[in-house]
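Look over this record as teaching material.
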Amino acid sequence: MTTAFDPIDLSGTRLANRVAMAPMTRSRAFGPGLTPTDSTVEYYTQRASAGLIITEGIQPSAVGQGYPDTPGLHSAEQLAAWRRVTDAVHAKGGRIFAQLMHAGRIGHPDVLPGELTPVGPSAVAADGQVFTQEGPKDIGTPRELTGDEVRATIEDFAAAARRAVEAGFDGVELHGANGYLIHQFIAPNTNRRTDEWGGDAESRIRFAVEVTKAVAEAIGPERTAIRISPTNPYNDIAEPLDEAERAYPALLGELEALGIAYVHILEATPALRPLTLDLRKEFSGTIVLNPATDGPTGHDALTLVEDGIADIVAYGALFLANPDLPARLAAGGPYNTPDPATFFGGSDKGYIDYPALTG
């Protein structure tokens, strides 16, 4: 029987175990040019015993930033800073993928440099607020991307992926979940386009497919992955189940043809397990699962590997409280209890530090 503590070959990259650290936005890029700092190096190195670390969301372009003090991978300065992180993780025997996250309509001009404003597939505002250096502010209406800008954005992802590999990352995970740009193209309430990038479910997945294809061509499919969260309402997404049942099997069919390293599924609710199982049938590669749980994902989730539902299980909040989580899971505990006070508040900053809603 395969267990979560057995190694796995991830398209040529050997992982020591099947416990992944889920991506969790930290808002701690306090270095010059939104670069990781010494604390970032320490944070990831402490968790290098994970079979796979998936980083916080990293914007592939300046306009892709959604929150204050989040790191990028669109400059030489940022590339060099991330190299310090990957070198340290690899020195501890760890493996690390960079999550590329374009926030799309989730943002505010006050967070962006110069005269930039948030963009999206359509000019549809999200109902909610984001944090800025001056506190929370209402999300405004994004500017709809032109066809040429859509293609330029795809190239931004590919360019950032090339920088990620140059910075020493073992691969990249595209953030196609939680209501950010790729998810905004998939969801019917945020994509109201009538051109090739919108319309029916098969057309709305085109952007996700083309971004994945461009990244796979840039760095190799074996270093390319994507995260999805069907029906997840986070960031004001409205994605009915019947729409998801059309869109996501079609998406995974396209990803299967590309031969990418893995698909990372975030289950929004336990009721979505049948869809998760259907998606697993569509994709013969590695499935990373962040299961729907009541509270932080715990020890019980290890059975997902034993039962063949997932190849790798992703842990979020429990990894914040327990940097040596794989060892604690193997021993059956004890576990430090995740304390929201330790991951809200942004260190010496006064705004939310945005833990990923994944644990």
Notes: The first strand starts at residue 8 and ends at 10. The chain has twelve helices and 14 strands. The first helix runs from residue 38 to 46.
